[in-house]
Specification:
InterPro entries: AraC-bd, AraC_XylS_family_regulators, Homeodomain-like_sf, HTH-like, HTH_AraC, HTH_AraC-typ_CS, RmlC-like_jellyroll, Tscrpt_reg_AraC-type_HTH. Pfam families: AraC_binding, HTH_18. One of its GO terms (molecular function) is DNA-binding transcription factor activity. This is AraC family transcriptional regulator. With 260 residues, this protein is an alpha+beta fold. It is built from ten helices and ten strands. The chain has two domains: 145 residues, Jelly Rolls (Sandwich), CATH 2.60.120.280; 98 residues, Orthogonal Bundle (Arc Repressor Mutant, subunit A). Helix 2 packs antiparallel against helix 3. The chain is globular. The termini are close together. 36% of the residues are buried.
Length: 260
């Protein structure tokens, strides 16, 4: 089971959203990205948030939105605990209901936005019918109170690296190695690593691991076994899979597979 400080909610009838609540949490994330759009709030304590080119200490009542694929980390201050809530939303679903989405992290200090988020998550974690939960989610996203001030400028673009990004996003063990990908692009491994990190804020290896964790989450939600997921996604063994997963999700794969 997830630790007492963390609870997950999801419903296969609403596959475009997952929610997390944490109280008195000391869990830390390494810098990571995911394929979902994230909107979160700080309920208690303070958090050290960082993303490429920016950082901020987030206070209680702060709402933050993070685009898909953008690397970030959000952790309690050293020796302290904090409480937070986070929505993970399908980007296509978000665009459908919210229109054009920001390309940068945005921070919002708005009493109405914070209260609206809390009401929404109370609804999601309740026993209400799925259609009521979906309607509450649509209302919150489309109203747009979660939008705020940019924390940093939009990330740089590198269209010529898009093929590399697509290959690295392939979670299969048959995907080309990073040296092979560099050679295919006419670059040395060092050149690919430097250019990819400049463009995305992540090394190719870290980006690939994040995409494998994305895929692992999907497989675990579908009920796949931990050993099968580790094997299918090319992890050295189950302990390697567990370590990589926990660094990015702040809970073990087994705990994620059995939400409370």
């Amino acid at each position: 089971m997830p630790p007492a400080s963390a609870r997950l909610w999801r419903d296969p009838r609403l596959p475009f959203v997952e929610s997390r609540r944490a109280t008195d949490s000391r869990a830390c994330y390494r810098p990571h990205s995911h394929s979902t759009w994230s909107i979160g709030v700080v309920d208690r304590g303070r958090s050290d948030f960082s993303c490429p080119g920016a950082g901020r200490i987030l206070e209680p009542g702060t709402l933050i939105s993070i685009p898909a694929w953008l690397p970030h980390a959000c952790n309690p201050l050293p020796g302290r605990t904090w409480g937070y809530q986070m929505l993970y939303l399908d980007p296509g679903w978000m665009r459908h209901w919210a229109g054009a989405l920001p390309t940068e992290v945005q921070v919002c200090r708005n009493v109405r936005a914070y209260a609206g988020f809390r009401r929404l998550n109370d609804c999601l974690f309740s026993n209400r019918a799925p259609d009521i939960k979906a309607a509450a989610l649509v209302a919150f996203v489309s109203e747009g109170l979660w939008r705020g001030e940019p924390l940093a400028g939009p990330p740089p673009t590198a269209p010529d690296l898009e093929p590399a990004r697509r290959w690295l996003a392939e979670p299969s063990v048959e995907a080309p190695s990073i040296p092979a990908l560099a050679a295919w692009l006419g670059l040395s491994r060092y050149q690919l690593t430097r250019r990819f990190q400049d463009a995305t804020g992540m090394t190719p290896h870290a980006f690939r691991l994040d995409r494998r964790v994305d895929r692992a989450r999907s497989l675990l939600r579908a009920g796949a076994s931990l050993s099968q997921v580790a094997q299918d996604l090319g992890f050295a063994d189950q302990s390697h899979f567990q370590r990589v997963f926990k660094e990015r999700v702040a809970m073990t794969p087994g705990a994620y597979r059995r939400p409370r």
